[in-house]
């Protein structure tokens, strides 16, 4: 762990079913925690295009479709893959311990 690097514990791995996402609100952040085929990814929960909650969006493979205007993002990279979304999502560096999902904050 590098100097000044802090980790924020979010949830247990078992809290997020495969192919699903959950919303976590912690330390002023509103995050979506995704389980894509047993790999965990964390992004901001709010769509960069509007007030949609990505943890409530449809997940197909590694893409989440926002429930607000149906724009889509790559969950692993945060890059928009379908309009009207044009601004990338913030993706957090995720660390998985035995059962705990944490992010670099």
- How much of the polypeptide forms β-strand, as a percent range? over 45%
The count of domains is 1
Q: What best-fitting shape do the alpha-carbon axes yield? A: globular
What is the rounded distance between the termini? 12 Å
Structural class: mainly beta
What ranges have pLDDT less than 50 throughout 5 or more consecutive residues?
none
CATH superfamily: Rieske [2Fe-2S] iron-sulphur domain
Describe this structure in words.
The chain has 105 residues and is mostly beta strands. It has a single domain (7-104), classed as Rieske [2Fe-2S] iron-sulphur domain (Rieske Iron-sulfur Protein). The chain has a 4-stranded antiparallel β-sheet, with no helix packed on it. Helix content is 0%, strand content 46%. It has no helices and 11 strands. A hairpin with a 2-residue loop joins strand 5 (58-60) and strand 6 (63-65).
